[in-house]
Each structure stands twice: as C-alpha cells, then as structure tokens.
Write a structure and sequence with these properties.
- By secondary structure, the protein is of the alpha/beta class.
- The protein has four domains: about 130 residues, 3-Layer(aba) Sandwich (Rossmann fold); about 170 residues, P-loop containing nucleotide triphosphate hydrolases (Rossmann fold), CATH 3.40.50; about 70 residues, Helicase, Ruva Protein, domain 3, CATH 1.10.8.60; about 70 residues, Orthogonal Bundle (Arc Repressor Mutant, subunit A).
- Helix content is about 45%, strand content about 15%.
- It has a five-stranded parallel sheet with strand order 2-1-3-4-5, with helices on both faces.
- Strand 13 and strand 14 form a beta hairpin.
- Helix 2 runs parallel beside helix 3, helix 13 packs across helix 15 and helix 17 packs across helix 18.
- It is globular, with a radius of gyration of 26 Å.
- The protein binds adenosine-5'-triphosphate (ATP) and magnesium ion.
- Adenosine-5'-triphosphate binds next to strand 7, helix 7 and helix 15.
C-alpha cells in the first residue's frame, strides 16, 4: 500500500516507517499537517496515519481537507489517551479508525490488516464502476478527485435526456468543457452545439441574435436572419454568462424555455425547436435575483440540473494529473519530449490558490513548455507569485536586494494589487482599473500577463 505518515515526533515517524516498509508498503513521512497535506496531493496515498496534535495543521484539520479532496482515502488517527474525545470526533469526520499511543506492533498490525481488506473492497468497487464509465476522465475532462467523480456521475445522468443544465463555477474551472462533454456524449452529438456568449452581445442585438429577425424588422435588418435557437435545432444551445442577460430579454427566454417556441423579431410566425439548453455563469445568481437583476422564474427553469464545478484549490489531487495532461498536450504540439516536474515545483503548484483555476494552470504549463529548455520543470521556471512561502516577497518587510530581481518584486506587488482590486469590485474591470489608477486597457494587459481571468 501507498502510506503517508504524519507526526511531529521524528522517533514515531522512524518507527512506523521502518515497520511498515518491512511489511512491504511504500511509506512517505511528513512532520506537520501542512507538509502532510502537500505530500498527500503529491503522492496520493491510499492510507494516511496521522497524529492528532501537530503544528500548523492539526490531525482533524488534515483529515477534513484530505477527505474533501478524496473521500476514498483511509485515515487512521494516532492519539494520546488524554485526547480520546477528539479521536471520536475524528471518526465522525470520516476517519477509518484510531489507535491510542503508545501502541505495540501487534496493534498496528491488526489495524493494517483491516485496512488491507477495506482497500481490496474499494478497488473491487471501483473496478465495477469503471465498467460503466471511466473514472479518471470523462471525454476531455481530466480529474480524479472525489468531486470530479461526482460530477462525471451527474453528467452521465443527463446525457440521454433533454433536461436543462445550469453550470456554475469560478472562471477557468471548465464550464464550457463540461457543456461540450454533455452534448458530444449524448444522442444529440450529431446535431449542432451552438455557443452564445451573452455578455459579449450588446443588449440591443441579443434578442435578434437568439431568436432571429425578419427582413426590415429594424434598421440594419437588411435580410431575414435565423437566431441561435433555430440554428441549434436538434442539438444544444450553450448560453454562456447567462447572468449578463438583460431583464427585458429574460422574459423572452423564459417563454422559449417553457414552450420551445418563439417568433423572430418583427415576425409573427411561431417557430418550434427541439434544443437542449445548457447555461453557465461564474456569478452568484441568487444574489442577482435578490438585487432584482435576474428573474427568479427564469432561474428555476434553468436550474433543473445544477452542476457546480469546484475551484481547483478544492480538488488538489487533480493538480498533478492536469499538469501531466497539459505537459503532454503542449509537448506534442511543440514537438519536444515531455518534461518532468520537480518535487518542489509540484509542491508549489499544490500550495498555490489558482484564482484562474484550470485555465491558469494550462497557461502556465504552456508558457514553460515553450520557454524552458530543460528536461524538468523546476522552481526557477515558475512565475514569482507561485513560489513557496519562504521565498515569497510577502514575508519580507523590505524586499531584500540581491535576493530577488527588481522586476520580480514589481510584478509581485502589481499582481497582488490587481487581484485585490478585482476581488473588491467583484470582477468589474472598469471599477478595478479606477481604484488602481490605471486605464482598463493596461489592466487587461496585466491580467493576461499574470494569468488572472474574470469575465
Ligand atoms: N477538468 C479539465 N480537464 C482538462 N482541461 C480542463 C479541465 N477544466 C478546464 N480545462 C481547460 O481549462 C480551460 C478553461 O476551461 P473553460 O473554458 O471550460 O472554463 P470556464 O469555466 O468556461 O471559464 P470562464 O468562466 O472563464 O468562461 C480550457 O482550455 C479547458 O480545456
Ligand atoms: Mg466559459
């Protein structure tokens, strides 16, 4: 078995490592909870044996984090008799078992035997499931975290029907990829997949873009035009950034959703279509409803099957598979051998918060694959804001001259300020640029440079 042992006492680590290795297991050790969590992301152990009281991150906190990333991982808590209460709490949080310190070899052996049986059960289960669907990927979607697996299951349940799907999630989490996976893996795959970016079309044109118009229905309507709903007939329409649709047009959308019927702008012939509707947004629509910017009846019509895509930082076990996937993709594109990732670089990836999610990771890997000539990705290849804490400029009250290049310090500060301004303004670029005292053009330029995305 692949086992991770976390304890702040080196003697305990050594004892368990020696014993478990003598039993033929692969053992990795960590001396506090935080290190434990990053090693967990790196090696993806089947079993974690952890102490309760540890610096930085306690055993319970570690338990909660690893379980949310991968519910299958088996966690065994080690506890002193005095803290047995918290061991019971740990069991409630999903720990598999606990063992009271000090313990004998026989006791640990007993637990490990039980764990062995449990793991073969889990494997058998997984095998059965994989007969029905691939667990590690779905179409072009990569990810093996518990959360991704839940999503694959949800997706596979909507493939064969026409239920309206509402995909929510931060920018870059893969909403569009999911919409495409739903379309291309269902019975409509041979029909069209039509994407409408509702935020990019001016209010005056959106209705005719969606529903079409008759010749001469408004100035500029020289010819009759089919709308996106008509073009998508027999297939899927993907309404991206649905939260940006003006209230005046929401009413019309509501009718199409209810009846699949509409008239072109300026027309009176009723057109009936057969489309699957998938909507997406990175905004909190419930807040938009509260503020009167989004109709609640439309929301309920759209939200028949909600799929919420978790941010990358909440599924860190996906980081290494995604990294590998993108390295392969860009190496092939650029015809060079695939790079390896150093341990330190992978740790930095796992600790980073990924505000731009998978897209940000993809862009960073692409840049490295193009720019670096080395065989592996090392810390030196990473942008400054990804470097681990002890290297981070944030820690220094005065940036230490000689340790960092001036451009790095400037970049770092700019990056932080832009991130903060975008957070303060909920992603409104014009407002954020005002706060920062730069124009919107330079803001967009810098956002690209730092891989910051918002809509
Ligand atoms: N699970 C994944 N596996 C592989 N690639 C992914 C995954 N998730 C996202 N990507 C890639 O990341 C990039 C961003 O994905 P996508 O455009 O679907 O995000 P989004 O949620 O629609 O973002 P936005 O809200 O900014 O429009 C794409 O290049 C996509 O291929
Ligand atoms: Mg998108």
């Amino acid at each position: 078995m692949n086992i991770l042992v976390c304890d702040d006492k080196p003697v305990m680590l050594k004892f368990l490592q020696e014993y478990l290795e003598s039993e033929g297991h692969a053992v990795t050790t960590a001396c506090d909870g935080e290190e434990g969590f990053s090693k967990f992301g790196e090696i993806q152990p089947e079993v974690i044996i952890t102490d309760m009281k540890m610096p930085k991150l306690s055993g319970i906190e570690l338990l909660k984090k690893v379980k949310s990333a991968n519910p299958d991982v088996i966690v065994i808590m080690m506890t002193a008799f005095a803290t047995i209460e918290s061991a019971i709490e740990a069991m409630r949080e999903g720990a598999y078992d606990y063992i009271i310190k000090p313990f004998s070899i026989d006791q640990i052996k007993l637990i490990m035997n039980k764990v062995g049986e449990k793991i073969s059960l889990i494997k058998e289960n997984k095998y059965l499931k994989s007969q029905l669907q691939t667990i590690y990927r779905f179409d072009n979607l990569i990810g093996q975290s518990g959360k991704m697996k839940e999503m694959y299951e949800l997706i596979s349940r909507v493939l064969d029907n026409r239920a309206t799907v509402m995909i929510t999630g931060e920018t870059g989490t893969g909403k569009e990829l999911i919409a495409r996976a739903i379309h291309y893996n269902g019975p409509r795959a041979n029909g069209p997949f039509i994407k409408v970016n509702c935020a990019a079309i001016p209010e005056g044109l959106l209705e005719s873009e969606l529903l079409g118009h008759e010749k001469g229905s408004f100035t500029g309507a020289i010819n009759k035009k089919e709308g996106k709903f008509e073009i998508a007939d027999g297939g899927t329409i993907f309404l991206d950034e649905i939260g940006e649709v003006p209230v005046s047009i929401q009413v019309k959308l509501l009718r199409v959703l209810q009846t699949r019927e509409f008239e072109r702008v300026g027309g009176n012939q009723t057109i009936k279509v057969d489309v699957r509707i998938i909507a997406a947004t990175n905004r909190d629509l419930t807040q938009a409803i509260a503020e009167g910017r989004f109709r609640s009846d439309l929301y309920y019509r759209l939200n028949v099957v909600p799929i919420s895509v978790p941010p990358l930082r909440e599924r860190i076990t996906d980081i290494s598979v995604l990294t590998e996937h993108f390295i392969k993709k860009f190496s092939e594109e650029n015809r060079r051998p695939a790079m390896k990732v150093s341990k330190e670089a992978m740790e930095a990836f796992i600790k980073y918060s990924w505000p731009g999610n998978v897209r940000e990771l993809e862009n960073i890997i692409e840049r490295i694959v193009i720019l670096s000539k080395n065989a592996s990705i090392d810390l030196a290849d990473l942008p400054a804001h990804l470097l681990p804490k002890d290297n981070q400029l944030e820690q220094l009250s005065v940036p230490s001259v000689g340790k960092h290049k001036m451009t790095e310090v400037v970049d770092y500060i700019e990056h932080k300020m832009i991130e903060e301004a975008l957070k303060m303004t909920n992603g409104q670029q014009t407002q954020a640029a005002d706060i920062l005292g730069i124009n919107r053009g330079s803001l967009i330029y810098k956002m690209k440079k730092f891989n910051l995305y918002n809509s």
